[in-house]
Amino acid sequence: MTLTSFGPANRIQRSAETHPLTWRLRDDGEAVWLDEYQAKNGYAAARKAFADMDQDAIVQTVKDAGLKGRGGAGFPTGVKWGLMPKDESINIRYLLCNADEMEPNTWKDRMLMEQLPHLLIEGMLISARALKTYRGYIFLRGEYTTAAKHLNRAVEEAKAAGLLGKNILGSGFDFELFVHTGAGRYICGEETALINSLEGRRANPRSKPPFPAAVGVWGKPTCVNNVETLCNVPAIIADGVDWYKSLARDGSEDMGTKLMGFSGKVKNPGLWELPFGVTGRELFEDYAGGMRDGYKLKAWQPGGAGTGFLLPEHLDAQMYAGGIAKVGTRMGTGLAMAVDDSVNMVSLLRNMEQFFARESCGFCTPCRDGLPWSVKLLMAIEQGRGQPGDIETLLGLVNFLGPGKTFCAHAPGAVEPLGSAIKYFRPEFEAGIAPASAAVPPLAKPITVGA
User: Fold this and answer.
1) Helices 108-115 and 117-131: crossing angle, nearest 10°?
2) In the CATH hierarchy, which fold is given to the domain comprising 248-340?
3) Integer distance in angstroms from the first to the last C-alpha of the chain?
4) CATH 1.20.1440.230 occupies which residues in the chain?
5) 87: buried, middle or exposed (CB in 10 Å: 19+, 13-18, 0-12)?
6) pLDDT digits (tens, 9 = 90+) for 132-156
7) Where is the signal peptide (predicted)?
8) Nearest one of 303, 251, 257 to 280, comparing CA atoms
9) Would you tell me which of 109, 339, 410, 432 could form a disulfide with 227, CB atoms 3.0–4.6 Å apart?
């Protein structure tokens, strides 16, 4: 799997006007350090924000641009920023970057942090200015060792250049930034579990309300944004709302561009910056090159392991939240996976649910007990030992673990692919149900209570 935003040479001509996230990337895949980043107009947006805009203007610009979270939930970023308290007496606030990218089949943030670390730092600097936060943390997946090394080097470069630390750009504004590597838990992608982990606590999600904007890390107002979300901020400030909105395709309700990808047995697996509103077919055929010779597309997930499966007939859906919702699932992270015709869906789902069951924090009963239950049932069906009624039990779990019925969104995301797989590929599940005569072996002798 290559970490690239390059596609077929005749398809992509990256420029600042069309590819705000990736136009600075080097062709050799090496990181863009401070001198080169500034030569490519880096930190110009930060200088504009500090010199010409007050905090409210920055927040309003991001809100007007329609920027939404790129971590999977899609909450409007400007609205989230607007939840931070306006009370000037609260002088300790935090900005957290959620870089705990542990969604299976997702690696977009890794590319940005490894190859464009200063883009993330600039995005956080502008965001800190808007939110009046004096300290920031990049909460990084512990396995991303190269990203950690590159981010730490970029932070030191920015400090030496007066772009982090005290009195930034002569404005009187102070902002410190730290890279914090986690211990490797999927649940840390949930913002309040991330906050608990940063504080040194067990990574359980917190009750909401209060929301982090009111009571976050160490009890102070806190804003948590995803890596890709923060990396969009400099271009919005530098080039304006109308330009940013113009990047999306007609019909898309989401603005700007998105890092999208395709993995699986496709000819050209990779990662590309594309406008919201491209179709799944364009992504699959024009960029990923379709299936490798000898394989057929059986199903696909549009945005990570926690999104429902779709069929080849759904490839004409537009890749934005509302477009994917029309065919019954979620946009998620925007990195799709192709399932080829050699894959048994029961085995694939058993593997997925094992991951989700292992990564549950164990806090609430539906998730703690329901996900392992689904694994046991799927394992039995996979081995041809399924009992009559097991499929109905699995569908019951999909309902019981659905949105609004668990403490956080972990379980609903875990069972969404399970429900869709049964919907589209039920015969494969039925094939693992043992005949009724063999399902329950007869008792050797009747059991008498008290015998």
Assistant:
1) 100
2) Ubiquitin-like (UB roll) (3.10.20)
3) 63
4) 345-430
5) exposed
6) 999 999 999 989 999 999 999 999 9
7) none
8) 303
9) 109
